[in-house]
Amino acid sequence: MIEDRPLIYKYLRHDKKFPHVWCGGCGIGILLGSLIRAIDHLGYTKDEVVLVSGIGCSGRLPVYVDFNTLHTTHGRALTFATGVKLAKPELKVIIIMGDGDATAIGGNHFIHAARRNLDLTAIIVNNNIYGMTGGQYSPTTPYGQRATTAVYGSVEHSFNIAQLAVCAGAVFAARGTVYHVRQLDGLIEKALLKNGFSVVEVISQCHTHYGRLNKLGNQIDMMKQQRDSAVPVEKARKMSPEEMEGKFEIGILVDREAPNYLEQYNKVRQKAKNALSLQLTKEEKEESERREALDKQ
Amino acid sequence: MHRRKKPEPKAQLMQGNEACAEGALIAGCRFFAGYPITPASEIAEHLSYRLPQVDGTFIQMEDEIASMGAVIGGSLAGVKSMTATSGPGFSLMQENLGFACMAEVPCVVVNVMRGGPSTGLPTNPSQGDVMQARWGTHGDHPIIVLSPSSVMECFTLTVKAFNYSEKYRTPVIFLMDEVVAHMREKVVLPEPNEVTVIDRVKPSVPPEWYLPYEDTSFGVPPMGIFGEGYRYHVTGLVHDIRGFPTLRQDEIEPFLLRLFRKISIHFADIQLVESFHTEDADLVIVAYGCTFRSAHRAMVEARARGLKVGLLKLITIWPFPRRVVEPLTRAKKTLLVPEMNMGQISREVKRVNQGMTTVLTVNKIDGTMITPQEILEKIEEEKK
Ligand SMILES: Cc1ncc(C[n+]2csc(CCOP(=O)(O)OP(=O)(O)O)c2C)c(N)n1
Ligand code: SF4
């Protein structure tokens, strides 16, 4: 996209870190474009953005962009991000995770981050498989689909990540695809603007593993499948489960208000300080009484 | 008018865990993330009460893995950070602890040792995590481990732990034991202006010149803080001096060697010990943590009986203070290492000894402290 060229020069560490590690045609690069456009459009400065990731193909995303970037351990990105945000609330902290990263090894952190409602934005690249390690099945590999560790087809049922976020208490949860890229730009913007824990699940293709193992064609075929299986949430609500079979909803699943963690914790600080000043005045009084008694002696 | 007396410094009865928490506060710790576990919970409880009073932040995370991650995040954003746990939680922290070693993130991890393995003996003392503190995380790495033996040391050494972590950009493990953690002793805490506090060195070059992992003569690169204009990449992958992942042989080894060197060239600063009557002694007890207390008593009793016994207290356990132990072995003094495990530090003493002198041990793993009597018996048996 011609219009993106100046943006790429503005944000990518193009002179330092390229070529990148991703396969040509991987959806993660498309998501990176969306993320950059959203950040640029909202006018965040590079210094205030912290991009945190876990481990996986998606985990490699931050290294290419000129923000404060933190590539953590597998599944733990949200925990590091929690520390960053609590230590410096003025920072805009964005977390990129893979589906395995966020909902297998990091599943516990994910639901607790949603419940806690710290002002973070989590973007989860759902490619239905463990990409980086070579195509093993993940918590989002659909029942019956193949992976290198499910050569006879997976017998586990998959997570609906955006729905999981809703149930765990996220104040904003949306799903987009890398095919519907303009919509994705908007979803990420809305998530970034949301006060509280926001989640965007991004359906993306891993043609190299998931596509190949399940005979889904190349990256373009897989993006067409995204186009054909995605149903806008409003429409999906009117459809029966049978009609939704093999399809998924895209758009905003939930957008609600709740006080964020730091607003709550500031109240704790205030209470603690009030208690302390009461305690101090009591001690001061005792001290001056002690001194008066000494003076009288 | 009467002259006003300066108010006496306040003596107070304090628990080891509380003293550790207060030490952290005076060292400048303003972020704590943890998960409850006996016998370390009092540290979290105390800090949950104290940190919000001083504009700090306390958070109880969903587990110890998360706690360690949050602590690293807090430190990267410029706030001195700590967590506290015991054996089972310490095991869970190991992967992220390695991240802190690799990315050179200052932080303090308190491990109040209880009996193990597994859930083990939750309320009983042990010194079974000496080797885990050294080698718990995967990969070859240096680490600093301090061990207190009194409530006052829980305070003073926590300050030191923070100072080392900031100075050398490394996680420091504060290895307490259940006895020291739960014991109450009289302490007089210093005023904040009486305590030396070291803060990490931050970059002073213009941001575009900043090389976050550049070698320096001190071995420790200045640390950029998120949000302060020095944008750089932090990763657990082996990285080049710019912080970017590398697979180049000529970059991998120099980087890893620097991680070792930044500690090894500063052994004299890091390796803390205290010696008692080691000069004239022909038998020296080497002890640490709560076992030091029994060893000290045993030494006093032995001396009263005319036995020439000395005592070396290890405050820094790792890097092991070889430069102090080796002269004792060369002087052919018998060494006696009592510890509440099957011989983790004695193994290190024997390694340093290399057959020069006799190394005796007293090992106890029944969930109780080694008594002065038990050490004394060993001494007398040897002196017979
Ligand atoms: C503790 C730990 N376990 C396992 C791995 C190996 N590992 C690296 S990436 C990965 C899976 C990545 O899959 P996903 O999170 O879905 O991200 P993707 O690569 O598909 O973007 C695994 C299992 C690891 N790095 N750390
Ligand atoms: S393996 Fe899959 S997820 Fe990873 S870069 Fe290639 S296409 Fe993308």
Structure commentary:
The complex is a heterodimer of chains A (297) and B (384). Chain A has 2 domains: 6-258, Rossmann fold (3-Layer(aba) Sandwich), CATH 3.40.50; 259-297. Chain A has 12 helices and 10 strands. Chain A has helices spanning 5-11, 27-42, 77-87, 99-105, 107-116, 161-168, 181-193, 207-213, 219-229, 233-237, 241-244, 261-296; strands spanning 49-53, 68-71, 92-98, 121-126, 129-130, 136-137, 172-177, 198-203, 230-232, 248-255. In chain A, the strands form 2 sheets. An 8-stranded mixed β-sheet of chain A has the order 2-1-3-4-8-7-10-9, with helices on both faces. In chain A, strands 5-6 form a two-stranded antiparallel sheet. In chain A, helix 2 crosses helix 7, helix 4 (99-105) packs across helix 5 (107-116) and helix 5 packs across helix 6. Chain A starts with a helix and ends with a helix. By secondary structure, chain B is an alpha/beta fold. Chain B contains 13 helices and 16 strands. In chain B, the strands form 3 sheets. In chain B, strands 2, 3, 4, 5, 6, 7, 8 and 14 form an 8-stranded mixed β-sheet that branches. In chain B, strand 2 (31-34), helix 2 and strand 3 form a beta-alpha-beta unit. The interface between A and B is large, with 47 and 50 residues. The site of thiamine diphosphate has 17 residues of chain A, from helix 4 and strand 5.
Instruction: Order the strands across the largest sheet of chain A as they lie in space.
Output: 2-1-3-4-8-7-10-9
Give the domain tally of chain A: 2
CATH architecture level-2 label of the largest domain in chain B: 3-Layer(aba) Sandwich
CATH class of the largest domain in chain A: Alpha Beta
How much of the sequence of chain B is in beta strands? 15-25%
Number of domains of chain B: 2
Largest sheet of chain B: 8 strands, mixed
**Beginning-to-end CA distance, first to last residue of chain B:** 68 Å
* Ligands, ions, cofactors: thiamine diphosphate, iron/sulfur cluster
- For the record, the CATH architecture of the largest domain in chain A stands as 3-Layer(aba) Sandwich
Number of strands of chain B: 16
The helicity of chain B comes to 25-40%
Task: Briefly note the structural class of the backbone of chain A.
Answer: alpha/beta
Structural class of chain B: alpha/beta
CATH class of the largest domain in chain B: Alpha Beta
Round the mean pLDDT of chain B to the nearest integer and report it. Answer: 96
Identify the overall geometry of chain A: elongated
